[in-house]
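Reopening this one. Same input as before:
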Amino acid sequence: MMLAETDLTKKIVEMSGQNVFSCNLCGKCTAGCPISDVMDIKPHQVVRLVQVKPEVLLESKAIWLCACCLTCVSRCPKMIDIAKIMEAYRILVLSLRKEDFVEYSPELSSLLPVQALVAVRSKYSMIHLPSYHPIIRLKKYFTRERLPMLMRGMRT
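Same output, byte for byte:
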């Protein structure tokens, strides 16, 4: 049975370049994900939600927690790059918001866990992820509204 694609599904598939409909939901991506335990939506669930209810992911904390370590794609028998799907969602969410961004500074490293800073560096580095959107950079991850919530580990 072929699933109907919504406009948001089409946009995410186009932005990420991933065929989410080839996923067989084996769960290998989630089993290998080093941070799946803290995600509200697991990697294999992300792919399924893109297929059937993509708007749920717009409010998910999983899209911000993904470290883009590419373990998921290395384990996937269909070679679906979930990190690119997560990046597409982050770009979409950030492009819809008009917020006052905080510049990255060394002081942030004393406020946030090192893992969060490394993950953000991976997400927004043009050196490591050259195919990702050029406007989104490290400094745009931390907004004045989101910074206190990130420090407390709350959903943004």
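So the earlier flakiness isn't reproducible anymore. For the record, The longest helix spans residues 82-96.
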